[in-house]
Amino acid sequence: MFMGSPGDTTTPYVPTPRTTPTRARERVSYDRELVHSVLDAGYLCHLGFVRDGAPVVLPTLYARAGERLYVHGSTGSRPLRDAGRPEVRADGGMPVCVTVTHVDGLVLAKSAFHHSVNYRSVVVHGRAVQVTDHEERLLALDALVDNVVPGRAADSRPADARELAATAVLRVELAEVSVKVRTGGPKDEPEDLGLPHWSGVLPVAPVYGTPVPADDLAPGIPVPGYLTAR
Amino acid sequence: MFMGSPGDTTTPYVPTPRTTPTRARERVSYDRELVHSVLDAGYLCHLGFVRDGAPVVLPTLYARAGERLYVHGSTGSRPLRDAGRPEVRADGGMPVCVTVTHVDGLVLAKSAFHHSVNYRSVVVHGRAVQVTDHEERLLALDALVDNVVPGRAADSRPADARELAATAVLRVELAEVSVKVRTGGPKDEPEDLGLPHWSGVLPVAPVYGTPVPADDLAPGIPVPGYLTAR
């Protein structure tokens, strides 16, 4: 079962000390469907790992398939090389933290202190292991393309043997996971409500523009429907 | 000099082993003005640190002031507590990696392998120290509000003593810094150019919506110009 156990999405993730916040506890959830929906709404994660005792955080693409998260990269890139080292593999993988964040609005309160941001953020703790199974690698690479542009994997040339050999795929199981969500307006102190400052929320969302054809695109190839619908 | 030395912005940051990529070297730069411009274009960073030997990556707001980066949070939050521990202070601060990423476009190539993303990303390695100087704390907190909504710090009630006591501010010097930028269209293999797939770039950018007044906002307070201009 390559794509992770479908499981029971009504069963929440089990909190652990490191997925239990010390504050703003009302914003945290372990709800599986909510976690999945926040992950599926994005494609860029920030992957954290430790090198020489210091943290490293790099932006990279990801895709979810069931209870597995995939990232990929060149076999020459350092985190992917690190994860493939024999002692790391023997240790169950490279400790990572994968964080996905969507900003939904800027929250302006009467007081500077109560300014905030509306956001949805998933934090995944786990170990990244190199995927070696050929079938799983192919499924993961398709998922990585389709998670950025749904429908695109089938409308592009699949990787050939040389490209596959140059690509490393890492898998992180979704097990130690939490999601934080803030919604709604500012929470001002009652005594501030008479102040003359505007308060409220400025919504923000990513918006896609008009597709720009490549310089070397032959004439007559139309923009595909999965882009124009975006 | 609280806001960091203005320095000579034409002098690049000095590369170190961990700011030197093993691949895609043509995308990396240490140009100070470029680093500043990428940082100043955003307000959300992903802050990485190490706890119990494992990486943790949390989204948080930041602001740049000269060659200093500030983040803040509740004195009760774990990374901020960690950074304030005496042994960490004695050690020069908490090792952190602060990463800021803007996605500018989805790059669709003829081949799945050459799919990419246009982005700008800054990675800062350093040590986070708790800011204890009162003046610097006030300047940092104003910068944090103004970096999200320019002009807002002056149009809100400043933090009072209780709020200041509940807020920790961390500072990271901009010294070990790199920036990566990818722009332009897909880089397809010449032998793929005859394939029937569309290729090009789908631009993406954050777009701000119509400001939503707070439920408890008194009537007659207009939306400020610094929001409508956005």
Automatic annotation (TrEMBL), chains A, B:
Cited InterPro entries: Pyridox_Oxase-rel, Split_barrel_FMN-bd
Residue ranges with Low complexity bias: 9-22
Pfam families membership: Pyridox_ox_2
SUPFAM superfamilies in the record: FMN-binding split barrel
Source taxon at top rank: Bacteria
Region of interest called Disordered, as start-end residue ranges on this chain: 1-26
Transmembrane annotation, as ranges: none
Protein name: Pyridoxamine 5'-phosphate oxidase family protein
Originating organism: Streptomyces albus
